Amino acid sequence: MAIEGLHWKTARPQDYEHIETFLKKHEPYLVAAASRFIQYKNRTLGKGKTFPGRDQMLLGLDRAQHIQAFLFRSGQILHPFFLNYEKEQASRITRRFINLPFSKRIYSLQGLKEDVEITEEALKQEGYHIQDQFDYYLMHLSIPVRLPPKPEGLTLIDNPAAEQVYPLQAAYEQEEVIPAHSTFHEAHCRQGLERILAEELLIFAEYGGVSAAKANTNARAYTCRQIGGVYVQPRFRGKGIGTYVVAKLVEQVQKEGCAVGLFVKKQNLPAIRVYEKLGFTPIGSYRINYY
User: Fold this and answer.
1) Is the pTM of this model over 0.85?
2) What is the distance between the alpha carbons of residues 146 and 159, in angstroms, rounded to a whole number?
3) Label partner for 225 (CA 20 to 30 A): which of 140, 190, 201, 284?
């Protein structure tokens, strides 16, 4: 049943506790948005107002003043989450939101497919045009990972240097991340890798003494971490290396007491089979648009 009659307001620091309660309730569907909200909250606390210009969140409240939906803009990334909110009203509030005086246009729209479809139509009416669009399965794992046998000849390297990991990270971004209309930038890649090495969990493996595979976390919410950056050099694929590296990463996350989420392109059947083998199950469809 569609939710109707929500009252929408701009989030304030006094709303943060209620926002976090809402995010935790729906966390498996919102790891990326929750991770960015945590960063947003840390920047705004103590200012007595919302963070000016770059980031903004709009809350949809029911008559009891409970959060039922939100629109969250983190820099140039827009996260919609409408649950069962009435589509026409969701589109109308989206158009109002994106016309607020932000400093930059929206570059990326991401979230559950049904929410992104509503939002992309509103963006279209405001003159935005999709450059690239990717559909994924959103997958979740809350049971202990099924650890496969270690492939013979594979070595996991503790605390690898950036120069060891960089070739795999660059190849991953060019193969899996960079939209067709964009250009790969080495400096941006290296900067992102430095953040991963400093803030995230990463598994790096060599096969026969040669850099072969990597996987890392890329977002952390409250009780769930999201994994990504999974890449195996083409000549080493089909040997169970990717399965083992991902399993060891998941094992490390679970040792922290966290559940694990990820999204995988719907056409990437080999990766889907790997994740299912490890115990992941699909919980929804996820979409990312680039403008």
Assistant:
1) yes
2) 24
3) 190
